[in-house]
Amino acid sequence: MTPLAIYNFIYYYECMETSPSRSRVIFIVVFLIIFSAFITFLLITLTNKNKNNLPKENPKEAATQGLCAPFAENKVKISCEEAVKKAMADTKGKITKITIGKPTLPDEIKKILGNPKEMWLIDIVLEKPTMTRQGKEIKALQIGIPTDETGGIIRTPI
């Protein structure tokens, strides 16, 4: 209600003090206020429900699908999506690149493990950098997931 309408109502109300329909005017005004509040509540509720009914897309899944798209035709036992799920199971961060290849390992580790097979190589920038035992900060990892079901996961800092 505008200030002018309120003023007119008060003026009208004061003029009607002696009139028997004063209670009727009060009833109508209260009814209009309650009705306006109810309509406002309904409009707010309906707009919130419409916002909640929109399909929610998981941004991580959308990004993964985009990065895995080039590998849709690859005939390997573990798909790109499965490899990403395994890599992200205990690593929090953003995937920057996915390729298939042999991981780059230091010579000491190559002597122990031998020459690695082809793997899914998933580059991840970590949400929270970690520290090595030598005090070096690691901000990104390359996680190697075997393309078949043999072998283990290899994690190397990049």
Question: How would you characterize this protein structure?
Answer:
The protein has 158 residues and is an alpha+beta fold. It folds into 2 domains: 3-52; 59-157, no CATH class. 44% of the residues lie in helices and 23% in strands. The protein has helices spanning 3-15, 22-52, 59-68, 80-88, 107-113, and strands at 93-101, 119-131, 137-146, 154-157. A 4-stranded antiparallel beta sheet has the order 1-2-3-4. A hairpin with a 5-residue loop joins strand 2 (119-131) and strand 3 (137-146). The longest helix is centred in the first third of the chain and has 31 residues, at 22-52.
In short:
The chain is of the alpha+beta class and 158 residues long. The protein is built from 5 helices and 4 strands.
Low-confidence stretches: none
Which strand order does the major sheet show?
1-2-3-4
Amino- and carboxy-terminal Cα gap: 65 Å
Radius of gyration: 33 Å
Number of H/I helices: 5
* Count of structural domains: 2
Q: How would you classify the helix and strand content by structural class?
A: alpha+beta
The helix/strand order is HHHHEHEEE
Give the strand content. 15-25%
Please summarize the sheet with the most strands: 4 strands, antiparallel
Q: Globular, elongated, flat, extended or rod-shaped: what is the shape? A: rod-shaped
Number of strands: 4
Roughly what percent helix?
40-55%
Arithmetic mean pLDDT: 78
Layout of helices and strands, plus pairs?
Elements: H1 3-15, H2 22-52, H3 59-68, H4 80-88, E1 93-101, H5 107-113, E2 119-131, E3 137-146, E4 154-157
Antiparallel strand pairs: 1-2, 2-3, 3-4
